[in-house]
Every structure is written in C-alpha cells, then in structure tokens.
Design a protein that fits this description.
Number of strands: 16
Strand order of the largest sheet: 1-13-12-11-14-15
Mean pLDDT: 74
CATH architecture: Beta Barrel
Strand content: 35-45%
Low-confidence stretches: 4-14, 21-28, 232-249
CATH class: Mainly Beta
Order of helices and strands: HEEEEEEEEEEEEHEEEE
CATH superfamily: Trypsin-like serine proteases
Largest sheet: 6 strands, mixed, barrel
Radius of gyration: 17 Å
CATH topology: Thrombin, subunit H
Number of domains: 1
Number of helices: 2
Length: 249
C-alpha cells in the first residue's frame, strides 16, 4: 500500500476519540477479549511508554501521536519502538505472537501536544507482518458517524483496569460504548473541534485509561477513531477542565 495514500486516508477518515466521565475509573465493566477476536490489535512499547495500536496494512500500524512524546516533546526513535501482535496477554509468549521493530514513525503534520482535536494520529512502519488467524488488518472506514445520534461501538486496548495498586494489566480488554459527534455528546467543544472528535457517552465511570492510547474505536466492524484523551468535568459551554492525560475512549 502506498504510504502517501494510506496516510492521507487516515488523516481524512480517522478522528480522535475522547471520553467524558466523572471518575477516573479504568475499564470498569470491560471484558477480556477472546483469542483471535481482534487480530489487528498491537501493543506498542518503548522504555518510557506503552500504547495500543491497530494494523491497517501488512507494514503499517495506526496509533496516537502523543505516544511518541517524552515530557510533551516528540523524540522517540523508530528503532527504539517494538510492536507486538498476535497476542491477548503480552506477558505470555505464544507461537502466534509476532514482534516487529519500528522503521519509520510519521506524525500527523497538524499534531500539537496538550490540545484537544489536535490530529493526534501517527503511523508506524514495520517489517511486514505475516497474516494469520491471529494477526491481520482492520479496514479504515470511509463512512462518517451520524452527527446527532449515538452508535454502538467497541473500544479495545491494553489499558489499566481495576487491579490492586502496583499491579499492571497485561490482558487485552474490550468495552462496549456509545459514540457520537453531537454537541450534546461533546459538551464544551467548539464546532470545529467536534468535526475532528468522536465523543463517548458517560456510563457510570466506564472508560479506558493508561495504555489504551492509540487503541481503535470499532463501529460496524470498521475502524472509526483512535483513542486520544479524557475530560472529566465540563463546567459550562465555554469552559472545560482536563483530566490527567489518559489515552482514553
């Protein structure tokens, strides 16, 4: 697949995903993903971070741009990035797992750190994955979401869950969510921001958190968005308060 065509397609069709919730609960109510259920899922890791990502072609992985910033400065070398696919528990090696080193990282040209609706998208190039029952691609949707209605979708990632302090989640989880680009679903955002944002309906604190950044929002079997940021408090239409950065959906 031609890189320029792929990146332009992702820029035009993929939007960032934010969540509004009152409590910083991570994946409360989420379910453990089944083997082979999401063969396009990858965990992307570096000594300073881990993020989720989605395989969109044999050699390209889509994720969030903010995964490659250290202290809000973009500066992680592609060769220092590892991408693992074919697993649901990254702490357990299996015959299905495939690990690739990053060869290129392309950040959306309009990306700006610490801003909502900031084109928080990145593509990682790797040596081509071998397509199997456990490793495969997901189609990037060429359809828009309804503006004023909620649509049922699924968010997927390796983010933290409700575990005892000091214990980290290593198992892939999924969460059913309701997504919209409406003013009601995205309170406090300007019209131009909502054109780049999918918002998820509050559901008793359910959501994604650290480690879910870059994970896909899947609607009707296609990739519609990439996990971007969480907002926990909307004070009025013109003022909003940020939650600590959690790649969340």
């Amino acid at each position: 697949m031609n890189f320029k065509h792929l990146f332009v397609s992702c820029i035009l069709l993929i939007v960032s995903v934010v969540c509004y919730r009152n409590q910083p609960v991570c994946l409360a109510g989420g379910e453990v993903a089944k083997s082979y259920e999401f063969p396009f899922m990858t965990i992307i890791y570096h000594k300073t971070m881990s993020c989720s990502g989605a395989i969109v072609s044999e050699e390209w992985v889509l994720t969030a741009a903010h995964c490659f910033s250290i202290n809000y400065i973009l500066g992680i070398k592609p060769s220092d990035i590892k991408v693992m696919a074919g697993i649901t528990n990254y702490a357990e090696k299996t015959n299905n797992s495939q690990v690739r080193q990053g060869t290129e990282v392309h950040i959306h040209p309009n990306y700006r750190v610490k801003r909502v609706a900031n084109d928080d998208l990145a593509l990682i190039r790797v040596k081509p994955f071998l397509m199997t029952i456990a490793v495969n691609t997901i189609h990037v949707s060429d359809r828009g979401l309804p503006i004023n209605d909620y649509i049922a979708c699924t968010a997927v990632g390796w983010g933290e869950v409700d575990k005892p302090p000091g214990r980290h989640n290593t198992v892939l989880h999924k969460l059913k969510v309701f997504s919209s680009m409406s003013a009601k679903a995205c309170p406090g955002l300007q019209d131009w921001e909502r054109r780049k944002i999918i918002c998820l309906k509050q559901d008793n604190g359910k959501g994604l958190c650290d480690g879910d950044s870059g994970g896909p929002l899947i609607c009707q079997g296609e990739l519609y968005g990439i996990a971007h940021q969480v907002y926990k408090e909307i004070k009025n239409d013109n003022e909003r308060k940020d939650l600590e950065r959690c790649g969340a959906v």
